[in-house]
Write a structure and sequence with these properties.
14% strand; 51% helix; 251 residues; alpha/beta; two-stranded antiparallel ribbon; Rossmann fold; single chain
Length: 251
């Protein structure tokens, strides 16, 4: 009964309510004799619905997350953490500004890796927008609060995207004589991140975090209910695939 109620509630919230409205509009158009247009609308609605289900989105995102599995051993010479968004001016334990949930997951993993293997940490990420926080500087503050010594943290705060993350970070590593970074970023983002570092002549050791899909995956009927989160994950998959294509052939 609980799962049935959850499924029903999903049809009353976006995107479920939009799917119902589009279907009703398609029926009205069909009744008015415009069958070709109605069929086209129904087809689009089916695609929109499938992309809005956790069943499909988990398959899509899961395929990205499986591209770069973490190694059993990590014989690196530094840790590189890529930024993933930050707010500016928001209250924090110390000072202001907070990393996004995605970036916080990356930071926690970087701190855990440091505990296991105390290597220098390069935090990469600038202030992407006028009203966002400086990712690398906030990350340095938070790593310090987690016990990482300031002298073990190198800030790279100029990058605005993954390409710049790789270029700027590799410049720092080459100056320091490092060549085997343990690369920390979200699992869905790792394939593109590794590709960018490879284009700079660096073969990183991938250590993914921020997984969105459980392993192994199991099917249950509520995975067929439409949700905004599932639609966001499907959109994220499509964006990553497009960005990987651009990185591989045009950058």
């Amino acid at each position: 009964m609980i799962y049935l109620l959850k499924f029903g509630a999903s049809l009353l919230m976006p995107p479920g309510i939009f799917l119902i409205c589009f279907f009703i509009i398609a029926c009205i158009i069909w009744r008015r004799g415009h069958s070709a247009i109605a069929k086209f609308m129904v087809g689009l609605n089916i695609v929109f619905y499938l992309l809005s289900t956790q069943w499909i989105s988990s398959i899509l995102i899961g395929s990205l997350e499986a591209q770069c599995p973490s190694p059993d051993t990590m014989e690196g010479d530094c840790i590189v953490m890529l930024g993933g968004g930050a707010s500016a001016g928001t209250p924090a334990v110390q000072g202001t500004g907070n990393l996004s949930c995605v970036a916080e997951s990356r930071l926690t993993t970087a701190a855990q890796l440091y505990r296991l293997k105390p290597l220098p940490i390069i935090v990469s990420g600038g202030q992407v927008y006028a009203d966002s926080g400086s990712e690398a500087n906030i990350a340095k503050r938070d790593l310090g609060l987690l016990g990482v010594p300031p002298e073990m943290i190198i800030v790279e705060d100029k990058s605005l995207n993954t390409r710049q993350n790789a270029v700027n970070t590799c410049e720092i590593m080459k100056k320091q004589g490092w060549s085997r970074p343990i690369l920390v970023t979200s699992a869905f983002h790792m394939d593109r991140a590794v590709l960018n570092f490879q284009k700079e002549g660096i073969e990183p050791i991938p250590f993914a975090t921020d997984y969105r899909v459980s392993q192994p995956r199991y099917f249950h009927w509520n995975k067929l209910s439409p949700s905004a989160q599932a639609l966001e994950d499907s959109e994220l998959f499509l964006k990553e695939k497009l960005r990987i294509f651009v990185t591989r052939y045009f950058e």
